[in-house]
Amino acid sequence: MDSPVNLTVVEGEQAFLPCRVVNLGDKSVTWMRRKNLHILTAGMQTYSPDDRFKVLHPPGSEEWTLAIKYTHLDDGGWYECQVNSDPKITRPILLLVKDKSLNDPFYEPEYELVDNRTQVQMEGPSERYMQQSSILSLVCSIRHKDVQGPDQVMWFHGAVRLHYDSPRGGIALQTEKTIDRTVSRLRLSNVTSEDSGRYSCRPDIGGISSVSVHVQSSQHHAAVQHNTQSSGVTNGSKSSVALQFFLLTSGHAVLISHFR
């Protein structure tokens, strides 16, 4: 087995972690991620629920390459190529993923529409307002008439890609595919103000659709109720209450005073 190596890729690129095994015989090759001790592949089988991981092994060759599609920053770290011999043989590889945004908070990966036969649409309104500790559920529909559907649908919170083992936790992703339509669902449990921002759905065949989410803390909700009562808003002024809530959320105190 070859000596340890370091591999560097730019976020979003595909990474190929090499491992060459000589005289494997009846033994098997396993790829593992050190930081969570997850078995990614064993032989030609993939055991990760993240379908970006796949082992490449041309028949009859000595190569057992771990391929990672659409790398993101959290993919960085130590990986091990292992042979189940006695004693066990391992080859560590350090994957470094460079931040494509270059610390630019306004950066968003660019995905162009392939052609007019592909349409990407986020279901529901483009602005969402919700209370802290509730569940955020987003649905993205991709129509791909007369073209092959996406292999993968990616979700981003700003420039940060979301996936099942993101540090945030509480993330569920589900994708349903038919001949001419793919539906991807994102679910975030127990949201906080840190979950506010723009969420984007991006299939790997191109196209993009986004929605802005505003998570309200319980303090904001209480302040709105208090302000509504003190200003004498009645049941006949529902539109003013809704607008007042929005302005208070956005911090426009001058406009709020207009309703007092």
Task: Provide a descriptive summary of the structure in words.
The chain is mostly beta strands and 260 residues long. It is 12% helix and 40% strand. It folds into 3 domains: 5-98, Sandwich (Immunoglobulin-like); 118-216, Sandwich (Immunoglobulin-like), CATH 2.60.40; 218-259, no CATH class. It is globular, with a radius of gyration of 24 Å. A 6-stranded mixed sheet has the order 1-9-8-3-4-5, with no helix packed on it. Strands 11-18-17-13-14 form a 5-stranded mixed sheet. A 4-stranded antiparallel sheet has the order 10-12-16-15, with no helix packed on it.
H/E series: EEEEEEEEEEEEEEEEEEHHH
Strand content: 35-45%
Largest sheet: 6 strands, mixed
Radius of gyration: 24 Å
CATH architecture of the largest domain: Sandwich
- Give the spatial strand order of the biggest sheet: 1-9-8-3-4-5
Count of DSSP H/I helices? 3
**How confident overall, as mean pLDDT?**
77
Supply the CATH class of the largest domain: Mainly Beta
Helix/strand structural class: mainly beta
Overall spatial form: globular
CATH fold title of the largest domain = Immunoglobulin-like
Strand and helix map with partners:
Elements: E1 5-10, E2 15-17, E3 29-33, E4 38-42, E5 45-46, E6 53-56, E7 65-68, E8 77-83, E9 89-98, E10 118-122, E11 127-131, E12 136-144, E13 153-157, E14 160-162, E15 171-177, E16 181-188, E17 197-203, E18 209-216, H1 218-230, H2 238-250, H3 253-256
Parallel strand pairs: 1-9, 11-18
Antiparallel strand pairs: 2-7, 3-4, 3-8, 4-5, 6-7, 8-9, 10-12, 12-16, 13-14, 13-17, 15-16, 17-18
